[in-house]
Amino acid sequence: MPIQVLFIIKYIIHIINQFSDWTGRVTAWLLLLMVLIIVYQASMASLFSIGSVALQELQWHLFALIFLLGSAYTLKYDEHVRVDVFYQSSWMNERRRAWVNFLGSVFFLLPFCLIIMTASWTFVFDAYTYQESSSDPGGLPYRFLLKAAIPIGFLLLMLQGIANSLTSLLVILDIKEP
Fold first, then answer.
1. Domain for residue 101, yes or no?
2. Does residue 106 lie within any of the structural domains?
3. Which domain holds residue 28?
4. Roughly what angle, to the nearest 10 degrees, separates helices 149-172 and 110-129?
5. What is the pTM for the complete model shown?
6. What HEC string does 140-154 produce?
7. Contact 29, 65 (CB under 8 A)
8. Residue 40 CB neighbour total at 10 angstroms
């Protein structure tokens, strides 16, 4: 493999990994914000019998954002759900695991992300067109902003899947540092 192509591949992997780290940090702050809102809501409800529909919905929205935006970060650090019966067995070496990761990403993860991103744009567009908002009195407006997190989250997941696929490809080809 020419050194320029190898440099470009490693640069793409580096940029995507850096971006996933950044989205992971943003997600951590969203998690803190969600916890603070939950503590506030629970305190106000138990001490003063006061609640807010908007804050309750914001908790749900933050949870959705944490899940969607944090998935690429989770994939980057290999903390996602996996059936480890074969993957962690003694006969699986680093190269075989790279093959499993590469084929799984190319044939399952990346097409699934493309399907979800394609299908969810009409969902977001309809919510924007009809200015969908909460049906509860005092609920949050602009539901399309939350729904837009679906294709964005799967785009982030797809990018990290590309970085992981390229990393696995380098392992499969047994390419070391130039």
1. yes
2. yes
3. 3-172
4. 170
5. 0.93
6. CCCHHHHHCHHHHHH
7. no
8. 12
Amino acid at 11: Y
The closest alpha carbon to 154, from 75, 101, 55, 92, belongs to: 75
Q: Return the axis-axis angle of helices 94-104 and 149-172, rounded to nearest 10°.
A: 140
Q: Are 105 and 76 in contact (CB under 8 A)?
A: no
Least confident of 34-43, 79-88, 138-147, 157-166: 79-88
Structure tokens at 23: 């989205």
**Total count of domains within the chain:** 1
Which residue matches tokens 């993957």?
87
Q: How many residues make up the chain in this entry?
A: 178
Say if 178 falls within a structural domain.
no
Q: What is the pLDDT of residues 31-48, one digit of tens each?
A: 999 999 999 999 999 999
Letter for the amino acid at 119?
Answer: A
Nearest to 31 by CA among 65, 75, 56: 65
